[in-house]
Every structure is written in structure tokens, then in C-alpha cells.
Amino acid sequence: MSLIFQNSFYVSLNVSSILYGVELMLYFQTLRELRKTREREHHWDKFCAFFSTALLALATVCEATQAIFGQEIWIVNATYPGGPAAYEAKYDSTWYQMMGLTAAVLLDMLTNGLLIYRCLILWNSRRVVFVPGFLWVVSLGLGTAATGELVVRASNAGLFVGLVQDIGLAYFTVTIALNVLVTCLICGRILWLARGLGGQATHPYFGVVAIIVESALPFSLCGVVFLVLYAVNSEVSIVFRASYVMFSCISPQMLILRVISGRAWTSASEGTSSALVFQSHLQVISVAANVCRENLEDTTVDIPKFVVSLSNVEEV
């Protein structure tokens, strides 16, 4: 464990703690919103409560295991022979570290699954989500393989060593490619829908916040940065790995909160978009009518003849 890794690990613990606090705030705000709508007894609300709780539980495991490992390195075993580097090399794959890694993989699977579902809702086409679904299955297999390899090699393996690093690189490549693909699909669909609504593009469904939250943009960006650093075997990558894991919890939590607050696009929003387009057309007609009336008031016109001409136009 080099000095750079120790500093990066320390920073990652602090960043992870801050983001975990954000997740706690979002979780309890979600429960508050669900309490407001509990009289509906909708199955989606029950799913949101269960899914949010699962996200928080997995994030708690990830946060706790990293905090415990840091305590073991720098406090409990501060006088370990060989120093923190020797302790980290020997105990990097302890049982609680394996539990944390498993929780991170499960958290990633849940988040990607939710994003694929959101992509299906926005596009309303199963063909669009075929490739993301395939990548999801592949990432699940690679994540299981990486975890299994660490368990087999037990006390002398790590994420930056040998076969584990190769499998880990393949896993992160596939899962982050899935993140980026789904993010692009969701962003593109939102922009296309906003363009179709013309003047209504500032509707809450299609604003900048909608694009960031719906597409889980921070989650994908952290993943891309982490993947690049991990591929070059940079010890600084642990900072972005911690951010990536926490955003895999925060991003879906923000999306769920947005959905239950009625600010996200759902399958019932198609009719709403049609109504918005129809409303915009009515506004154009109303403005044109007002202009015509003002012109008629300012101009001397034979009103009976004008009415007759309008009736002839309507008959045609």
C-alpha cells in the first residue's frame, strides 16, 4: 500500500460518507412522499418503498465495510509488522470485504435494472432495451466471477492483482458501457419528446434536472472516470470507485423520488403530452383570433359581409 493509495483510500472514505448522508436524506424524503400517497395503496408505491430500502441496506454494507477496513489498517493494527501496506496486502480479501464487494455488485445490478426499465417506459419498445438487457446479464456473470475469484484466492488477492484485475476490468467495462448506453438512450428520448412538444419543452418532464436525474448522468460519469483510472492501474481510482458505488444508490433514489412526486415521465404521460400539444395549438389559435379582432376594431369593415364570407369558408 503506497502513500498515494493510503491518501486516496482516506479521501474515498470521506467522499463516501458525504454521499451516504445524501442517500439517507433522499431515502427519508422518499418515505415521506410515500406516506402522503399511502391511501392510494398502489403496487408501485410498495415497490418503491421496498426497492429504496434495499438500496439503502446495500449502500450501508458498502459504507460500513470500507470504514471498518480503514479502522483496522490505521488504528487497530497501526503497529502491524510491515505497516499498513503489509496489513492491507494480507487482509484485503477478508470476509467483510467480500460482503462489501458483493453488496456493491448487487447494488449495481439493481440500479442498472431500474435504468433499463425506465428506458423501456420512455421508449415503449422492447427492442430498444434488448442490448442493455444482454449487457446486464453479462455484467451479472462477470461480477459473480470476480467475487468468486476473490473468495477462492482468499487472503492474497485484491482488485488490482492478477486475474481478479482482468475479470474486474471486464466487469466494469461491460457495466459502465451499459450505464453510458442507457444514459444516452434516456437523454435522447427526453430531448426528442421535448422537441415534439415545441413551446412546452420547459415542462418539468423535459428540463435539465429531468435529463440529469432520469438518465442517472452522475452515475455514468463517475463510472467512466473510474474505468479509465482502473484500466491504467491507478491507485487514485479508489476515490471514483467509492463515488461510483454511492451514486449507484443515489441516482435511482432520486429517480424514484421524482416518480412518486409526479415529476417523471410514466406510461400515463403519453396522454398528457398529447394534451400539451393540443393546448399549444389552442393558444396559437387564440392569439390569431385576438389579432384579427383587434384589426377589425381598427379598420372599417362591412361586418355582415365579413360574417357571410366566414360562413362560406366554414362550409368549404
Features:
316 residues, mainly alpha, 80% helix, globular, disordered C terminus
Question: How would you describe this protein?
Answer:
The chain has 316 residues and is mainly alpha-helical. Helices cover 80% and strands 0% of the residues. The protein contains eleven helices and no strands. The protein has helices at 3-36, 43-76, 83-91, 95-123, 130-153, 162-196, 208-214, 217-231, 237-260, 269-298, 303-315. Helix 4 (95-123) runs antiparallel to helix 5.
Determine the N-to-C terminus distance: 85 Å
What do the pLDDT scores average to?
77
Q: Please bin the fraction of helical residues.
A: over 70%
DSSP, total strands: 0
Radius of gyration: 27 Å
How many DSSP H or I helices?
11
Low-confidence blocks of residues: 271-288, 300-316
**What is the 3D form?**
globular
The topology string of helices and strands comes to HHHHHHHHHHH
Main β-sheet description = none
Quick summary:
With 316 residues, the protein is mainly alpha-helical.
Task: Please describe the topology of this protein.
Elements: H1 3-36, H2 43-76, H3 83-91, H4 95-123, H5 130-153, H6 162-196, H7 208-214, H8 217-231, H9 237-260, H10 269-298, H11 303-315
Helix pairs in contact: 1-2, 1-9, 2-4, 2-9, 4-5, 4-6, 4-9, 5-6, 6-7, 6-8, 8-9
